[in-house]
Amino acid sequence: MFVSAVLLAILVSRIDFENAMPKDRHLGTVLFFAAAVLTATIGIVLSAWRWRRVIQAFGPTVSMSELTNHYFAGQFLGNVLPSTIGGDVLRVSRSAPSIGSSETAFAAVALERLSGFLVLPLLCFIGFAMDPSLLDTSSAWIALAISIGTLVVLTGILFLAGHPRVAGRFRDHENWMRFLGAVHVGIGRLRSNPRAAIGVLVAAFVYQSSVIITVGFVVLTLGVDLSVAALVAFIPVVAMAQVIPLSLSGLGVREGMLVILLHPLGVSNGKAIAIGLLWYLVMLLVSLLGAPSFAIGARGRSVRQARTP
């Protein structure tokens, strides 16, 4: 929370409010904003689909409706607590009874998250391939460095988690280290079933593409001139940076990265910050749809505990 407040204070002090919002507001502005909210809502369903594909790699089959409810509840919680960790914990705890194992539930959420960190750098590279002239901008090296660094770190994590003498030796432990062992088992399942692994990556690619489309509608809402290639190249980089658990739901980090990446493209600091804040508002509005799932799930768990002798 403190980090978000400091970063936002610094960024907001540099906003030219007169030019941050579109001067010509019309029906299209409202429609673009509504489209952003709709696309973000569909994105949550796509996230649940990606999660389901990972769970299926372990063997269990859980309904899309149940996982979608859990994901919306997690989004609601994730926008209340710092970062998105709280939402992931909720998804693990609520999906565990249907999956049949807390360890498998944890591993499924972890691998679902990791799949995004493979797809996001690839999308960045695709954006630069769509318009090679973007490589001439001063922010290109930052985007490429973050993308390549993410892939290097991800490769290291997957190597350690998949190695039988590292994470593999914890699979039969009784303490908390058994959760690392469950991730090892999941990686082994995906390695032995390339079709399932491809299915997870396809789902991740579709979901992350929906995020870019959502931000694209936010950009149109604000009347900012950005090419599709620029969105594909730079928005995944922002998505990678904002998950660092230093701020409240990425506030400040997201806006700062947008300023750094988009200013060389002619986007004013005020417009870049406005994109970040409106993007957050869209996700906040969508997360409110998870309030009933969050409340009903918590109440149902309390009732079950009360009935347990």
Overview of the structural elements:
- The chain is mainly alpha-helical and 309 residues long.
- It has one domain (25-293).
- Helix content is 76%, strand content 0%.
- The chain has 13 helices and no strands.
Question: What topology does this entry show?
Answer:
Blueprint: H1 2-12, H2 17-20, H3 27-58, H4 64-78, H5 85-99, H6 102-130, H7 140-162, H8 178-192, H9 194-222, H10 228-242, H11 253-262, H12 269-287, H13 291-307
Helix pairs in contact: 3-4, 3-6, 3-9, 3-12, 4-5, 4-13, 5-6, 6-7, 6-8, 6-9, 6-10, 7-10, 9-10, 9-12, 10-11, 11-12
List key phrases describing it.
76% helix, 309 residues, mainly alpha, single chain, 0% strand, 13 helices, disordered C terminus
